[in-house]
Write a structure and sequence with these properties.
This protein is an alpha/beta fold and 311 residues long. 52% of the residues lie in helices and 13% in strands. It contains ten helices and eleven strands. The strands form four sheets. It has a four-stranded mixed β-sheet with strand order 3-7-5-8, sandwiched between helices. The protein is elongated and about 80 Å long.
């Protein structure tokens, strides 16, 4: 669907930025009447910014995005066509991560796996993952549910809203379309990488639900397989060696193969060539940092974008 400029508006909610965003947007708004810059005067954080944006919005459908992502020109048209065809109350959309070097590649593979899980669970009627950088909802439904009322955590605007809408019996659908994708830049430093994942872990702990169950399953499986492999190394000839290793190798195959396939299929749907070896290596690295992050998130409150994360 072609997007008519006069039929949509852009609200930039400035949450106490220090990089000149407000002045820049106001300057642009002189040439574009559909662009509005709004300063967040009361409170801080993304939930407060979204709530203010929804309150001020004039359109019935709200598309939420982050300041640090990029999208193509057909994103809005793909969303409008999909929402009109499905009458969805909430539309989840894909996010890709890109970045240089091994750290960037690791984050890209991790994101492809998460995206595959997000699409799969939503397609089966049990959505557990949403992306705050790329989601939309019917404004009336957001206001009807009270938005983020009663939720004080700094992070988790996407997961909390998904849980609230889905729990209220509203229709949540995933727009699986490359045109609707946004691209985020990978964290360039190891410190930023771990801070981001500590924030994610804390968010899932606060929101709870099926996402936590899925996350625990993903954490437990590789650790159990590593433990089984170590135990198998102690089994000598004549003590069921062949049977033991058959079970261990079968377990690894049942965990690695479908996950690598999931990442590959996700990439193909987005027009990206699969890289099974890179996906496999990322899969082996995942439990090495995921477990420490999960445990640290119980006691550590990381800084994110210059602010402490409150859970």
């Amino acid at each position: 669907m072609p997007v008519v400029l006069e039929r949509f508006e852009v609200l930039v909610i400035d949450d106490h930025s220090s990089d000149g965003t407000l002045a820049l947007v106001r300057s642009m708004a002189r040439q574009w009447t559909g662009l509005r810059a709004v300063e967040l005067a009361h409170g801080e954080g993304k939930k407060a910014a979204i709530a203010l944006g929804v309150e001020l919005a004039r359109a019935p459908l709200v598309l939420v995005s982050d300041a640090d992502v990029r999208s193509g020109p057909d994103r809005l048209g793909a969303l409008v066509s999909f929402q009109q065809a499905t009458a969805a109350d909430m539309v989840l959309m894909p996010v890709r991560t890109e970045g240089p070097g091994p750290l960037g590649a690791l984050q890209a593979e991790e994101q492809f796996a998460l995206l595959g899980a997000a699409v799969g669970t939503a397609s089966n009627g049990i959505p557990v993952l949403a992306y705050g950088a790329n989601m939309a909802f019917v404004r009336e439904r957001f206001l009807m549910l009270g938005g983020y009322a009663g939720q004080r955590a700094t992070s988790g605007d996407d997961a909390f809203l998904l849980k609230r809408m889905f729990g209220a019996g509203m229709q949540v659908s995933f727009l699986w379309n490359a045109a609707a994708t946004v691209v985020a830049t990978a964290e360039p430093t190891v410190r930023g990488f771990f801070s981001q994942r500590l924030r994610w872990a804390g968010k899932m702990r606060v929101v709870g639900g099926a996402g936590v169950v899925l996350g625990l399953a993903v954490l437990v499986m590789p650790v159990a397989l590593f433990a089984a492999t170590i135990l198998a190394c102690t089994v000598g000839p004549g003590q069921g060696l062949f049977r033991t290793w058959s079970f261990v190798l079968a377990g690894w195959w049942l965990w690695v193969r479908p996950t690598v396939q999931l990442i590959g299929r996700t990439k193909r749907e987005l027009g990206i060539a699969p890289a099974p070896t890179r996906s496999f290596l990322a899969l082996l690295l995942f439990p090495c940092y995921a477990w420490p992050v999960a445990l640290l998130s119980l006691v550590v409150r990381p800084m994110w974008k210059g602010r402490p994360v409150r859970v």
